[in-house]
Amino acid sequence: xxxxxxxxxxxxxxxxxxxxxxxxxxxxxxxxxxxxxxxxxxxxxxxxxxxxxxxxxxxxxxxxxxxxxxxxxxxxxxxxxxxxxxxxxxxxxxxxxxxxxxxxxxxxxxxxxxxxxxxxxxxxxxxxxxxxxxxxxxxxxxxxxxxxxxxxxxxxxxxxxxxxxxxxxxxxxxxxxxxxxxxxxxxxxxxxxxxxxxxxxxxxxxxxxxxxxxxxxxxxxxxxxxxxxxxxxxxxxxxxxxxxxxxxxxxxxxxxxxxxxxxxxxxxxxxxxxxxxxxxxxxxxxxxxxxxxxxxxxxxxxxxxxxxxxxxxxxxxxxxxxxxxxxxxxxxx
Length: 333
Ligand code: LMR
What we know:
Largest sheet: 6 strands, mixed
Bound molecules: (2S)-2-hydroxybutanedioic acid
Radius of gyration: 20 Å
Distance between the termini: 44 Å
């Protein structure tokens, strides 16, 4: 693996400084873990189209979807080494490289809706979080939306007690780990590409994800019940290797920024519809039974998860949680 990463890093730098620079396009590899037919998958393809158009082909964007180039943890390591130029990991995946603050997005029920989300990401608070990536050799270019999460298992999940003893796949976030423990479940960190099989073979009993991710990975086919809980949010930070980015000619970087701004707008515009359609398709399939929570049940989920706001303050930062909440409410921006 290390060899492969380093060989990639060498190839990427040759592409920038080699003798054939005038003729050869600059290759920008964009790796991600979800299907093409998702908000992130479509956003990456839109960026590819616009980046090649605005640079008149001087930049060639190669998109690798569905973990075909790297899985979750590997992709972040590869980007830090310069083996891959662009990624869009979810907010829940930066902890293992030492950035814990993005896990604030994982606090259950922290975002009432997308308007609050945009307030948090698009103002000074969102920009401040992106700056945390730079000491790690990455530049944060944009926030891309996915959506609110469902909970699924082979047991109906209505009350917090229903989670007791179930093994749940989670992303690599300590906040998500604490969330599952607070519900009495056993969390298991696992790469996204392995979830379907783990559910199918019973390695884990349940998982949480957005409708578009569940549907495109066919998770609904191997989960008897899915709860419409909207208990948390999945979104992304589009990151680029800092050395690569700063080494680009200024005009090219400017054109890529323009392409990114438009691709961001596009991806954030389609995210709700993509998730609504995926939910409809899963409902039509009849493969998983959907459960709606009553207001009282939801209140009990919230009560069971409320302690995370204090328990996770030392992990995410008390100030970060407060600033996030204020930004989301629109009381600081
Ligand atoms: C997951 O690992 O469940 C998601 O973060 C995958 C993704 O990139 O949406």
